[in-house]
């Protein structure tokens, strides 16, 4: 490729235009959403974002655990203002308002000149790569997500789940027909700033399968990255635009976008950001903030590079979230019960034998296949 003619692909973290951002969009005040950060989107060949909610006016959400999220369809103008060409939709909120919400969002994007990937009316459509040719080079972008409420309850529209055999074949097929394969993954442990050892092993395997770059989102805090066999693997960009009450000046409000520079090799540029603080919208960091951000990023990179440190960090995370997970698997669930149990006023009702049984049912692949079918029955 001629020097200086590299293909520029910008990819952001999670975009969920809620609360003050939705208000600004309804006022057509897009400058107040992007501020000085809008320059990051200019002069690229492709701008990609992870759109983490349906854009719909549907009132009734689907059956699920966790929050339901949506934004007004007029928020599509946010993407248009930034010149976003592709919305990656495989995530744990795109199905919050069922097939209709997902269908409306896809049609809204397409009618406004924005392509989508990662969601379809069936699994074959959800698995399809987004393909584009730029300066005689073919790019394929695949989009997958942790299997968390990815299928509509009526069994129609669904997002593309992480299923190892199928994503392996999808990467191999895309690579056979493309010059570059980019994999966007919505996965990980929320509010944990590092990949699990399993995640690192999986993403490296996906590079070995033929992916040229991996970009991960979902955890709501930024993680580090590594260069594996000359290919960049980003373990979490953090939030891009995700205004949330009570979240200010925390890891929730920091992140970065990545600009991949595709030529005979793959390089990249990072664009750290802050968003959703006292003033809504996304901004560049000042020099002092950027220096502190990059220092933290390098520290997280150093842990990712060391398997022993990464394993120890994940063990610490497990210890931290154990009370929450214990509350999930105990027979009774609720704030009062959890508080009493954690203060040892009442005992754990799940004895060791029952825990051993649950361990076997979830760890053994054959048992898990049956368990998943039974638990999803009548839902």
Q: What does this protein look like?
A:
The protein is globular and about 65 Å long. It contains twelve helices and 16 strands. Helices cover 36% and strands 23% of the residues.
Entry keywords:
379 residues; 12 helices; eight-stranded mixed sheet; alpha/beta; 36% helix; six-stranded mixed sheet; single chain; 16 strands; globular
Into which percentage range does the β-strand content fall? Answer: 15-25%
Run of helices and strands = EHHEHEHEEHEEEHEHEEEEEEEHHHHH
Poorly predicted regions are none
Which value, in Å, is the CA radius of gyration? 21 Å
Q: Which structural class is indicated by helix and strand composition?
A: alpha/beta
**Sheet with the most strands, sense and barrel status:** 8 strands, mixed
Helix content: 25-40%
Number of DSSP helical runs: 12
End-to-end distance: 53 Å
The backbone outline, from C-alpha atoms, is globular
Mean pLDDT, to the nearest integer, reads 95
Number of β-strand runs:
16
Q: Can you describe this structure in just a few lines?
A:
36% of the residues lie in helices and 23% in strands.
What is the strand and helix layout of this fold?
Elements: E1 7-16, H1 19-26, H2 31-34, E2 46-51, H3 76-82, E3 86-88, H4 98-111, E4 115-117, E5 119-120, H5 123-127, E6 130-134, E7 137-145, E8 158-159, H6 164-177, E9 180-186, H7 197-208, E10 213-217, E11 225-228, E12 231-234, E13 239-242, E14 254-262, E15 266-275, E16 282-284, H8 287-304, H9 307-329, H10 335-342, H11 352-363, H12 365-376
Helix pairs in contact: 11-12
């Amino acid at each position: 490729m001629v020097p200086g003619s590299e293909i520029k692909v910008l990819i952001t973290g999670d975009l969920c235009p809620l609360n003050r951002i939705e208000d600004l969009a309804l006022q057509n005040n897009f400058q107040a959403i992007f501020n000085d950060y809008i320059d990051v989107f200019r002069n690229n060949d492709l701008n990609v974002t992870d759109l983490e909610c349906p854009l719909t006016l549907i009132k009734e959400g689907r059956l699920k655990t966790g929050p339901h999220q949506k934004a007004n369809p007029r928020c599509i103008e946010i993407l248009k203002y930034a010149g976003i060409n592709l919305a990656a939709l495989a995530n744990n909120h795109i199905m919050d308002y069922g097939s209709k919400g997902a269908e409306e969002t896809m049609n809204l994007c397409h009618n406004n000149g924005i392509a989508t990937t990662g969601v379809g009316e069936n699994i074959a459509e959800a698995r399809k790569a987004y393909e584009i040719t730029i300066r005689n080079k073919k790019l394929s972008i695949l989009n997958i997500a942790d299997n968390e409420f990815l299928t509509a309850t009526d069994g129609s529209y669904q997002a593309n789940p992480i299923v190892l055999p199928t994503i392996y074949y999808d990467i191999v097929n895309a690579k056979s027909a493309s010059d570059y394969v980019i994999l966007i993954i919505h996965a990980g442990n929320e509010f944990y700033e590092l990949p699990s050892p399993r995640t690192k092993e999986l993403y490296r395997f996906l590079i070995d399968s033929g992916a040229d770059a991996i970009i991960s989102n979902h955890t709501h805090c930024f993680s580090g990255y590594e260069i594996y066999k000359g290919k960049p693997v980003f373990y979490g960009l953090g939030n891009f635009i995700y205004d949330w009450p009570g979240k200010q000046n925390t890891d929730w409000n920091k992140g970065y976008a990545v600009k991949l520079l595709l030529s005979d090799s793959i390089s990249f540029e990072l664009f750290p950001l802050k968003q959703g603080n006292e003033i809504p919208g996304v901004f560049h960091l000042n020099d002092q903030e950027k220096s502190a951000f990059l220092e933290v990023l390098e520290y997280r990179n150093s842990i990712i590079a060391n398997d022993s440190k990464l394993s120890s960090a994940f063990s610490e995370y497990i210890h931290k979230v154990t009370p929450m997970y214990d509350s999930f698997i105990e027979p009774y669930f609720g704030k009062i019960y959890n508080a009493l149990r954690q203060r040892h006023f009442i005992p754990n009702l799940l004895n060791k034998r029952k825990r051993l049984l649950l361990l076997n049912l979830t760890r053994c692949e054959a048992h898990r296949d049956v368990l998943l079918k039974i638990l999803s029955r009548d839902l």
